[in-house]
Each structure stands twice: as structure tokens, then as C-alpha cells.
Here is the input.
Amino acid sequence: MTQVEEALPGRRVVMKLFETMGLYWHFVDLVWVFFFAFFIYGEVNYG
Here is the structure.
């Protein structure tokens, strides 16, 4: 357990939800970065 979980034992579900949302958001950011990188690369080389 982390220190925050020990200090707020009833908030474990909420913290897990925020952790999951944060990981999902980073995944979405990576998808957009690669999508636009390949989109721009395609326009420059094949457009």
C-alpha cells in the first residue's frame, strides 16, 4: 500500500478509477501522436 492509501483507506476505489483514467488518457494521447505523425508523413511523401 502507498502512503496515500494508508491515509485514506475508503478512497481506494476512487484512486484506482483515477489511475485507470490517467492510463487510458495517456494511451489516447499516444494514438493521436502516431496517427497525426503518419498522416503528415503520408501527405509529404505521397500527397
